[in-house]
Amino acid sequence: MTELLTISNLSYKKNQKQILHDVNLQLDSGKIVALLGENGAGKTTLMRIIAGVAKNYKGQVSLEGEEKEVQRKAKLSFTDNLTGFSDSTKIKDVVEFYINIFTDFDENQFEELRKFMKLDPEMKLSQLSRGMKEKLIIALTFSRKADLYLLDEPFSGIDAMARKRIINSIILWKEDQATILISDHFVNEISALLDEVVVVKDHTILEHKTADEIREGHESIEEYYEGLYADEEDE
Amino acid sequence: MEFKDNIPIYLQIEQYLYRQIALGELKAGEKIPSVRKLALELTVNVNTVQRALQQMNDKGILYTKRGEGNFVTENTELLEETKQALINNELETFVQNMNRLGVEKDQLIPELEQYLNSEDEK
């Protein structure tokens, strides 16, 4: 087991508001990890910092020893919500862009994923439903050869069939040494898939445990996660 | 296949495969599906399947042929033991449920006999 990602003493402010503070995290290669937390807890910001999209943070983020954003970006795959493409852009044009930008983008792999997800390359982004957009994001993300894949709430607002396809694509296409970090505010849909769980609360990482550790205590991941948030509801 | 979320999944995969073997769905000496195929079939992580298979390898229920995959043991004694363990599990659940219904140990066999006889008459 090798160390993939190390975050130490990370803090981040935006418009003088503390979004993250004292974040420490270590992930190994070859894992599927959930990043859990309620909306506003700081999950997306943490993802964006790891991805090298959000800058000007304090602390260290190192991916296989690389701290510079450019080098980190080359080792990880993250699709930032397809922002930057106009609504009239066709799927095939987005793919063209990815091929030009990322030297590790595997066109054949994208074709396989695209067929598996049943996406029509002629469709415009404005024509895509929420589920189709998520499927496209996942197809693009997994078509790169990377050590770390970041998926930000891939299951929000999509139906059970699309979810099943996305989960199967993770099982099928994840390479053994690659790690996937999936953020969600609801754990049930992916709990059977997880090696580890990282819980974000109050702008920092509260706990990091393996799924087996949690279940060996006869607790489901959902109960565990809800337990960490329970005191708040009582107030 | 639905898993309980409060028991380690690798243990449940083990139980699932024991059952497949006891039911003859997987036979002695037969190659079991690949790790990825099982992961997809059960909708679980590849690492979790690997952990379950490793445990079964350690217990001797499965053996690995290098480069070929995992096979069910041909040791009939071990297979019988595995089947007996599953039967014991079922009996344990049965006895516990009957106890909750107020049927004490000494009443179990008469209750069972009565039930089996009435089934025969149907």
TrEMBL record, chain A:
Keywords assigned: ATP-binding, Nucleotide-binding
Record bears the keyword Kinase: no
Domain of life the protein comes from: Bacteria
GO function terms (MF aspect): ATP binding; ATP hydrolysis activity
PROSITE patterns assigned: ABC_TRANSPORTER_2
Ranges where the ABC transporter domain occurs: 5-227
Keyword Calcium included in the entry's annotation: no
InterPro entries assigned: AAA+_ATPase, ABC_transporter-like_ATP-bd, P-loop_NTPase
PANTHER family: ABC TRANSPORTER, ATP-BINDING PROTEIN, SKFA PEPTIDE EXPORT ATP-BINDING PROTEIN SKFE
Protein name (database record): ABC transporter ATP-binding protein
UniProtKB/TrEMBL annotation, chain B:
One GO MF term attached to the UniProt entry: DNA binding
Location of the HTH gntR-type domain: 7-75
UniProt KW Aminoacyl-tRNA synthetase keyword: no
SUPFAM superfamilies with a match to the protein in the record: Winged helix' DNA-binding domain
Domain of life where this protein originates: Bacteria
Annotated keywords: DNA-binding, Transcription, Transcription regulation
UniProt-listed InterPro entries: Tscrpt_reg_HTH_GntR (IPR000524), WH-like_DNA-bd_sf (IPR036388), WH_DNA-bd_sf (IPR036390)
Protein name: GntR family transcriptional regulator
Native species: Lactobacillus xujianguonis
